[in-house]
UniProtKB/TrEMBL annotation:
It comes from Brevifollis gellanilyticus. Keywords: Repeat, Signal, TPR repeat. Transmembrane segments: none annotated. This is Uncharacterized protein. InterPro entries: TPR-like_helical_dom_sf, TPR_rpt, Ycf3/AcsC/BcsC/TPR_MFPF.
């Protein structure tokens, strides 16, 4: 099986998306024998990639200097991490990069692999530094992709846009179109995001089904954000036909079903998503669906799991969840503050603003929520939080504007958030 460098470039979007959080696991440089031992440790699971990983591990064990086998193994670690949410696989991918660098410190493939692994682990500044090194060595499309991703995740959208333009100038392809789609969504151009993601799908190949399923699920997400519920359902269903029970697509389907008031159907779908993607955003949606379906005991079990794993799995979404429920507010604030130190995008500012509001800091929350709104992102949760925060901070005009926008997008809110919206607009 052949794994192209294009796959590495594409995986960066997935690994550094809002649903990947391996940022606490960056390894220190290890002695070569220890690094190799971790790389060769068996991988569990029933993914179709596991046999290929095992075969490549055997090749590397037989010949540790086999550069091609090590490169392919690192790529598969990232792909397997994307499928299973096993964040330790990103560490193994970076260790592959470290081992490759022992043979050649300026090996572009080794640097690129390390850059993607660092990006997945939310070491954005270090990933940016590696991307800069790569661009000095060569001006490859993949290097611009890595740099743009690192800048974007640090909230530097204005700097990321020309970098992505250099990427698309070098090679118009699925990874470049998908990134432009994401930028357009962040800038509030949802229709433009849909157009670009359709271009990405047109460039995709069934030879890489996970990548095709990802861009298809992203299209469904943008359609859902644009309140095209039936179309989003059709698109997300198509993604599950490409990769059966693809969790990112199941999440969109579950959110559409919730928006349509079909709680029981949403529960069944979100349970499948949570089984392979046990992130706070998924578990939160599942708990809300269970409550709506009258299955409160099961919802309580999900919330216990969320409490146990949320801070590690995705501190930003977990902070939002805690602040929304009004519990563990000190932890929510600490998590949000830590997140914004490294990932200064609009959603980190929103998490901080919401945690500050819940902790009784209205002035600080207002400053943070203005930063969350600065790029023009159209997101119901951003609008809801901004409206409630502005109201508490004595900014009635801003509150009315943002709550009005949230009301227009209420079908994109979770049931628990819809209740908050109703309470805020009733008073």
């Amino acid at each position: 099986m052949k794994y192209s460098h294009m796959m590495i470039a594409f995986v960066a979007i997935v690994a550094a998306s809002r649903q990947a959080h391996a940022h606490t696991l960056r390894p220190a440089s290890l002695p070569k024998d220890q690094a190799l031992a971790l790389v060769l440790k068996s991988v569990d699971g029933d993914s179709r990639l596991v046999p290929a990983i095992t075969k490549l591990q055997a090749a590397v064990q037989a010949r540790p200097d086999d550069i091609k086998a090590m490169e392919q193994l690192a790529q598969l670690f990232i792909a397997q991490a994307r499928l299973t949410s096993d964040e330790t696989l990103y560490v193994r991918s970076e260790l592959c990069g470290q081992l490759l660098e022992t043979q050649n410190s300026n090996n572009p493939t080794a640097l690129l692999l390390r850059g993607h692994s660092l990006l997945a682990m939310h070491q954005f500044h270090d990933a940016e530094e590696i991307a800069g090194r790569l661009i000095k060595i060569r001006q490859d499309m993949q290097d611009y992709a890595l740099l743009g991703d690192a800048l974007m995740e640090q909230g530097q959208l204005e700097a990321a846009v020309p970098v992505y333009q250099s990427m698309i100038d070098a090679k118009p392809c699925m990874p470049s179109y998908s990134r432009i789609a994401h930028i357009r969504w962040l800038k509030g151009d949802v229709v433009g995001a849909i157009e670009m993601d359709e271009q990405a799908i047109a460039c995709a190949s069934y030879r890489d089904p996970e990548a095709l399923a990802w861009v298809t699920a992203r299209l469904a997400f943008y359609q859902w954000q644009n309140d095209e519920l039936e179309l989003a359902m059709q698109t997300a269903t198509r993604a599950t036909q490409i990769v059966p029970e693809y969790p990112h697509a199941l999440l969109v389907i579950g959110r559409v079903l919730l928006a349509q008031g079909k709680a029981v159907e949403a529960v069944a779908c979100l349970k499948k998503a949570a089984a392979t993607l046990p992130l706070p955003e998924v578990q939160w949606a599942l708990a809300d669906a269970l409550h709506l379906a009258g299955q409160d005991d099961e919802a309580a079990i999900v919330l216990v799991s969320l409490k146990q794993q949320g801070a590690k799995a995705d501190p930003r979404s977990f902070a939002l969840h805690l602040a929304t429920r009004g519990v563990e507010l000190d932890q929510a604030l600490d998590l949000a503050k830590a997140e914004v130190m490294t990932r200064r995008d609009v959603f980190s500012w929103d998490a901080l603003a919401w945690a500050q509001h819940a902790a009784g800091e209205p002035e600080a929350a207002l400053i943070s929520t203005r930063r969350a709104l600065a790029e023009g992102t159209r997101d119901a949760r951003l609008f809801l939080h901004a409206g409630i925060i502005a109201k508490a901070a004595g900014e009635p005009s801003l509150a009315a504007e943002q709550l009005g926008k949230a009301q227009q997008m209420r079908r994109q809110l979770l049931p628990s958030e819809q209740r908050l919206l109703d309470e805020s607009t009733a008073n």
